Amino acid sequence: MFNSNLVNMTVMKKRNLIYLPLLCSMLFAACKKDFLDRKLDTNYTEKEVFASYGTMRDFAYGIYTYLPQGFERFGGAMLDAATDDGLHAGANTTIQQLTNGGWGPFSNPDNQWGNLYIGIRKANLFLEKSADYKEIIKRDLVTPEGITAYKRDSTDMSRLRAESRFLRAYFYFELIKRYGGVPLIVKTLSAEDDLKLKRNTFEECTAFIANEIEAVIGDLAPTWSGIDNSNKIGRGTKGAALALKSRALLYAASPLHNTSNDSEKWSRAAKAAHAVIELNRYSLQSNYRDLFRLMQSNEFIFERRYTASNSFERTTYPVGFEGAIGGINPSQGLVDAYETTKGRAIADDSDYDPQNPYVNRDPRLQMTLIVNNSDYKGRKVELWSAGLDGPGKPRASKTGYYLKKYSDEGLNLLQNRTSSHAWVYFRYAEILLNYAEAMNEAFGPDVAPAGFSKTASQALNDVRKRGSVNMPAVTGVSREEFRLRVRNERRVELAFEEHRFWDVRRWKIGTETLGKPVLGIAITRLSNNSFLYNSAIPVENRVFNEKMYLYPIPRTEIDKSVGVIIQNTGW
How far is CA 560 from the centre of its chain? Predict the structure, then answer.
């Protein structure tokens, strides 16, 4: 996403406005103050905002702030704490509404309906009011300096308009992955418009997203890296738009939305991922552990930079460290998903020793999680009963694991040291896995028809052979076996990146994943300083049923539409 140090341009009209009842929460003056590092005077009229390059640019920058945030957006919890990959150690936290059945049309901790439609309206308004930008930004066209400035600003405004359409498409994807089909609104609405808008179908919304991306590809910047204005890093690019198309078409091809298993949908998803690969702009970062501490990488396609803080470290450091408060706990189920170094599931490797469970495992396991007796911040982590970081301590891990991914291990919390973090919306490894999944479903694991440069197996193995990972290649498996392997690869490679929550829904495997208790491990230190491990301990019960594959439409929106908007089944 956009660099959060940028201005969030928020404008207030001096006259009252009447809005679509469906979107009445979309107040034009709504200000996301969490995102603001500095403020602009909001006493602008609409005419004044769209009267110069500078104010139009800042308004366009503000549209970025409506993308959902990552990290601790659920009262200190991550969305993965509502999956079989983890939980949050706190009691009665917001995220637990999504896991105990305590959510619905009246209360949903991840209700993004209003926020995303505000973003859509801002994008619509910007596109309408900046249409004549070439005339608006004319000034000194006599001097060489004036001509240069005009050309520069004109090019930037063209790109901002393309970025606004990309962001609008992204907002719609964020809506449809939650709610299914939603009303497609592509202009600002007034009291004279028909304000009772029905939901478009999921297929119509997906087609809109794909078409919008194709329409703006030529106007988006190939990259912002190396541009003299560093604030531009994080803006939408051609790669970001194509990555969005890849994800949107993959979701559309998946069992939740492709009930007939139409292979052409899988083929289109494969082509969309291949378009990103063909750019030859992105590559896998060699060191998987370091990747999530970087602010910029050739693997990143679209990311959001956050100002320096230590709140994430406080919720991820083991609780025996001063200043740690506990929070995010990876599950035993996730740990068990990491293969042995032979490339086998732990149940299929006779050399796997459950009393030495972290030996000879996929290196990503200990690059992602903190395990018992591992070195962290200058000492051994004590996750056994009565250990410094184990059961009995306030907010200690319930599962026997802490999260390492993203955390800056070097912070001194007592001194309130801080560190910068980047939340990555798209990275190249996901694209390779999107491609592998779609190619397998369309053509099988080892077939690459004309127009495709890789087989599904080759793309999957590209991810597995990352320099710091170097897991054995997956070869000679059936389509069905490959499907399981690529799903597991997504689970471990993309852990705690907000994929698992949506993947198990689009695959329609919620009952066997989200509907079962989260598992942990109990650890006892023996007199000889060895350990006894007892895994598969249920630590938190979960509730999942069929209706939860899609979110409920907020009841307030149903009521405002006077029943025109139809609620999702079961809610």
Answer: 30
What's this model's pTM, rounded to 2 decimal places? Answer: 0.92
- How far is 244 from 426, CA to CA, in rounded Å? 8
Strand-pair category, 379-380 with 328-330: unpaired
Structure tokens at 155: 């090019």
Residues 238, 88: Cα–Cα separation, whole Å: 37
- Please report, to the nearest 10 degrees, the dihedral formed by the alpha carbons of residues 111, 171, 207, 236 taken in order: -150
The pLDDT tens digits for 46-73 are: 889 999 999 999 999 999 999 999 998 9
DSSP 3-state of 370: strand
The string over 76-107, giving b where at least 16 C-beta atoms fall within 10 Å of a residue's C-beta and e elsewhere, is bbbbbbbbbbbbbbbeebbbbbbbeeebbbee
Whole-Å CA distances, 18 to 15, 121, 127, 138, 192:
10, 13, 20, 33, 10
Tell which residue, 526, 523, 519, has the closest CA to residue 392: 523
407-432 burial, b for 16+ CB within 10 Å, e for fewer?
Answer: bbbebebeeeeebebbbbbbbbbbbb
Cβ atoms of 283 and 299 within 8 Å: the answer is yes
Q: Which of 255, 256, 293, 276 is CA-nearest to residue 434?
A: 276
Q: Estimate the crossing angle of helix 238-253 against helix 263-278, to 10 degrees.
A: 160
d(CA 23, CA 187): 13
Task: Pinpoint the alpha helices (H) of 428-514.
Answer: 428-443, 456-464, 479-493, 500-506, 510-513
Assigned token pair, 73: 């957006």
Q: How confident is the prediction for the chain on average, in pLDDT? A: 91
What CA–CA distances, in Å, run from 82 to 23, 407, 471?
A: 28, 20, 28
Q: How many angstroms separate the CA atoms of 512 and 10, rounded?
A: 45
Q: Higher confidence at residue 12 or residue 550?
A: 550
Amino acid, res. 439: M
| Helix-helix angle 428-443:456-464, to 10 degrees | 150
**Residue 477 and residue 457: Cα distance in Å, rounded?**
9
Report the distance separating Cα 555 and Cα 571, nearest Å: 10
For 73-124, the pLDDT digits (tens) are: 998 899 999 999 999 999 888 999 999 999 999 999 999 999 999 999 999 9
Biggest CA–CA distance in the chain, Å, is: 86
